[in-house]
Amino acid sequence: MRKEVITLNKKIYKVSFYGEILGKCQEIENIKDPLKDSTKGYLRGLCDAQAGQYSGLFTLDHMPDYVMEDLEETLPLPEEYRKTDNNKQNYYEYLILPSLEFADRTKILRFAVAKSEIDAFGLDCSVTLDNFHDHGEEEKDFLTLCSESEISLLIPKRTIPDMMSEEVLTAILAGNFVLLPFNTSYLNFFPEGSIAFYTNFFDVQEKIEYYLKHPEERESIAQNGQRIVQQLLQGQSV
Q1: Rounded to two decimals, what is the model's pTM?
Q2: What 3 state SS string does the chain have?
Q3: Taking CA atoms, which of 75, 121, 161, 189 is between 20 and 30 Å from 181?
């Protein structure tokens, strides 16, 4: 399943659910050919392991030769990252470290939400966080948590079709909301100020592209969106 990330400065990044989000979210035109799925899978595992999701399976020392060969052929290192003779370390600093630093800045490193809470998740955005590793808090209002970070709101995949009203869309545009399936492994790889959505929601894609192409309409969109953001922050329906 594919999705796109469209940033408000109109840069478009292509990402897939299983691992094309690599570190700094390389702009697609900078990648000559797509990396192999096996390479992307290993890099995703390495990112997750370094971020504390799990350990032991993915390390620099155990990086297979096929990963390095694919990276060197498909995504050559910029000259400024050729700091040592150890290209595994060089690629780590190029692809992995920036994403970990971004995760730290957002204050949300890793967390899991119980299935019952996902099922109960709605526009009031109030859930109990289970295993919030970074801060160790047993319970916190989810929207408050997100509003304290650089990411405004996360919405489980199952709610996306029901939430794509014009009002919610304007809130997304105005508030730099991030729509994600509820697998937060990829949270820390998104560039700041991004909007992520599935391309099979064509109506959403068309609306967002329309607003990006018509900046003269953005002021009213932003005003309406900020009102909705405040309603969401107060736990009100919109």
Answers
A1: 0.36
A2: CEEEEEECCCCEEEEECCCCCCCCCCCHHHCCCCCCHHHHHHHHHHHHHHCCCCCCCCCCCCCCHHHHHHHHHHCCCCHHHCCCCCHHHHHHHHHHHHHHHHHHHCCCCCCECCHHHHHHCCCCCCCCCECCCCCCCCCCCHHHHHHHCCCCCCCCHHHCHHHCCHHHHHHHHHHCCCCCCCCHHHHHHCCCCEEEEECCCHHHHHHHHHHHHCHHHHHHHHHHHHHHHHHHHCCCCC
A3: 75
